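Contributing new complexes? Match this layout with nicotinamide-adenine-dinucleotide.
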Amino acid sequence: MRNYVDGAFVATDARFPDVDPVDGHVHAEVCEADAALVDRAVAAARAALRGPWGRMGSEGRIALLRRVADRMEARFDDFLRAEIADTGKPESLARAIDVPRGIANFRIFADLLRGMPEETFHTETPDGQGALSYTVHKPLGVVGVIAPWNLPLLLLSWKVAPALAAGNTVIAKPSEETPATATLLAEVMDEVGMPPGVFNLVHGFGPGSAGEFLTTHRGIDAITFTGESATGSAIMRAAAANVKALSFELGGKNAGIVFADADFDAAVEGTARSVFANCGQVCLCTERVYVERPIFERFVAALKARAEALVLARPDDPAATMGPLISRAHRDKVLSYYRLAREEGATVVTGGGIPHFGDDRDNGAYVQPTILTGLGEQARCVREEIFGPVCHVAPFDGEDEVLAMANDSEYGLAAALWTRDLSRAHRLGRRLEAGIVWVNCWFLRDLRTPFGGVKLSGIGREGGLHSLRFYAEPTTICVKL
Ligand code: NAD
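Output block (do not edit by hand):
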């Protein structure tokens, strides 16, 4: 897999392997971008702002972005295969979520551009004649997009599409774990005739590699990043020297709260999905479950049955409901938390280890879905993001207690509330420290709504016009009448 810079695919001598987490085989070699190639990408992106792209009106950009979506749709199966090869996720999941949402992002942000509001003010001047002030939106310039591995195409295009819609040029760096769909996206950009330099792709790692070259580069105007909170903090330090605009979607340790009056089956089903979806590797996944005491034992038993019914299988097995983690290294991290949970005194209700298949999947990165109980709120397993198919379930008595427990976290991305009491849902929804609160559902997303976290979970909001506002700079024009 090559880089894509200034409208051309570029190979480099430094290579790193792209590993299939299902069985550990290397399915591709990836060309790592060096500092000189990132320099070239920045220069090309800067030049493109002054070229035909910079002079293109919004209708031209909308038409191009819609062509990108159409071409991706025509190559749907290529994207599907690439996403599965990189992540090992069940085909049913990638077919229903990752690829269609990745495509939809280009249509959604193209269409939203037409509805981007501008402001007008009629001002009374001291001489009584007045003035008309209004705003126009300009692109920020060259935007560095740094994406994670958990929903590779969806989260990369969630940034690339609005950045391009707003007229910026982009240098995208996918995660080193998941370079495949980003490389296909570069092919699509080429095929639809995106002007050279508008979309560039550089492969590599974070520190000492393409990630750091981007965040420290003087020629980049903004960085939009999704990933771990600690990485966000490092990027903020790196970007400070050049005062870049920053948008951060970071980690979470999300709470699911189940009241005794909830629709029990729906709460169990929704909570199980929120814990185990994508092998627990969604920033919105629930890792802390709080259940009102009268239904605690029954709920844990029902959640255990759900976990044990998950089918850990190859992506193309239609029965598969859970794939592997992204890599052996990430599996080591998740397993270290399984060990730590025991040291901290947890009861392992189910799971806690790795499955044994007796075939080449034993070389992959599968872990057992795991449920823990019995830990205090200060235990590291209850406070730190694990990012695997695991949750801790604790009982609570009453609204105030559960609110205090849910909010006692450094993170604040999402929460899910399960109750039939509508007044309580509204009351708690306001008081929960999270960017999004779901009531009797999870992962139900209207892509126009603001999306983002508080505390360590991020800075700013993406989604709909919120994304476009980040990628556009309003300029005020004041005309004396
Ligand atoms: P990560 O922070 O390890 O890596 C993300 C990206 O940053 C990768 O492309 C990586 O190469 C790059 N990177 C790493 N160090 C860097 C540095 N010093 N400078 C520049 N770039 C650097 O995250 P990950 O492991 O890929 O993803 C999982 C994390 O992402 C979890 O914490 C998860 O909660 C979070 N996440 C958040 C959201 C959200 O919307 N809030 C969505 C998905 C994932």
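Reviewers usually confirm one structural detail per submission. For this one: Residues 146-150, 155, 173, 175-176, 205-207, 211-212, 215, 226-228, 231, 234-235, 249-252, 283, 385, 387, 413, 453, 457-458 surround nicotinamide-adenine-dinucleotide (CB under 6 Å).
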